[in-house]
Design goal:
By secondary structure, this protein is of the alpha/beta class. The chain folds into 2 domains: about 1-50 and about 330-480, no CATH class; about 60-280 and about 495-510, Spore Coat Polysaccharide Biosynthesis Protein SpsA, Chain A. It has helices spanning about 1-20, 30-70, 90-105, 120-130, 140-155, 175, 200-225, 240-245, 255-265, 285-305, 315-325, 330-350, 355-380, 385-395, 395-405, 420-450, 460-480, 500-510; strands at about 80-85, 110-115, 130-135, 160-165, 165-170, 185-190, 195, 235, 270, 275-280. The strands form 2 sheets. The chain has a 7-stranded mixed β-sheet with strand order 3-2-1-4-8-6-9, with helices on both faces. A 3-stranded mixed β-sheet has the order 5-10-7.
Length: about 550
Amino acid sequence: KVALFAIALFANINYLLFILNPAHADNLGFFIMTGIADTIAIVIFVSTWATALYFELSKARYYREIAELRQKGSYLLRRKVAVLVTVVNEDLSIVRNTLESAKALIGEKEIYLLDDGRKPATQALAAQLGVRYITRENNAFFKAGNLNNALRHHVAEDFVLVVDADFALHPDFIQRTLPLFHDPRIAAVQTPQVYSNEETIFAKGSKYFQNLFYTYLQPGKHLLNSAFCVGTNVIFRKKALAEVGGIAELEHSEDIFTTINLLEHGYKVSFLNEQLAVGLSPTSLISFYTQQYRWARGGLLMLLKHNTLFNRRLHPEQRLQFFLSNFYYLSGISVIIYLLSPLLAILLNVKPLSDASFWQWLPTYALFFCTDFLFFLAFTRKHRLQSVMLGMFSFVPYMNAFSSEFLGWRKFKWKTTNSRSKGIITKLLFPYIIYVVFSVAIGYFLATGILSYNPGLILYYAWLAIDVIIVAIFLLHAYAETSKVAIPVLEQQDQFDMSTAELLAEKQHTENLVPPQPVPQPQPHIKRGSRLKGSIDIDDMPTLNIPVMSREAKN
């Protein structure tokens, strides 16, 4: 992978220098437009895979450091942890599932149900399960305000575990995370958001994106002291939160801004690459769109208005890593340009590169494309087509977020009681429907002679045909799968390239380090709903049966 990345890096830089050389331009406007798209894409590619490769090369050191902290901090397992479950209007069966998994946690804990929906039925559920129920008069700052209300007025524990209502916790969550706070600089320990369902193209693609991010990128960022909180499956040191004024009070993206506040005060956010909670990925177009839009707004807000490159309270590597993480959401600009380029070339009979430059461009592009594609294959295993299609679709929520944060246009708000509404889906897919219809019309006009065929544009004809096929397949999936009523069964996956047990054994052999003794594991009995099958492959953790209902099931 190192050699392949070195070749890919050379190919990317070589290609970028070529396409940014104005001597190669034909139509200057078109040349600048495609240059912008390629520059964004190359920056994202190089930064993403460089971080992933850095973790690959430092994996053993990463797990050894975790093992040392876990051994030295075992005394912290006597401390009590507050478990905060935030809810608004989630189905009670989903909330019950999360609370039952919280009650099965090994260790001292106090469970709080933070209800911004103020529903008597939710309060009754809390009483039935014996957990503390907290509500407030308003929903100011949404989730951030809900958490801060509990932290400031109700929670007495020194450590706080935050989990969303649609995740199920592994019983060992506290056992695996709490000892890491032996390092007094650690303010938070974040664990992965693991998705297990694969019912639809949206679920499959989302699961791939999450697995890539949490398997390679977050651990790489951890090694660069740039890991960040993602809002759930995270445990905080309450004292550190108090020093920065609590959770950052924003209507969205409070997690990453809280991370910045902690880093500015000299704290660290640790990422633990172990699957200790399981949830469900978006199974419909609307839930996927809403998720991506929310994440993009937070990233673009930080990129455009609170750019970390100019934050002198952060270390240089932190400034760069957070900038690059948020820069990713500009990929929507590249996708739009790539979709429109063949249309513009065919309709206006223009090209970004001169004919003479084209034959120089072709081998440069071939090397660039092949090395990037091979590197993509080297780090991915499943759902590649689904991820490509969702990547093409993501420009809609990304550009909507861009218009909201940069141009100040009306913020997107989603209110619907039926996430499978055909009318809403058609509205979201309208740009793609128009794209396919328009492209097919161009093909018809070329076939009938209404538009003149230009042999010099054959590359753009092929480009347009490929785009139309991918978009058409996506549209068919979007309509067909939205009509499904998905109640998935979670399947927990073993996704560790090297288990913690193996690394502990290696460290014990080389440094005579004795691993901590395993904590006795009770067998939880949860009889409701569907079952979670499989086990987490870290130190022979036990199989946990966790019932989880789809977020779409309630509709």
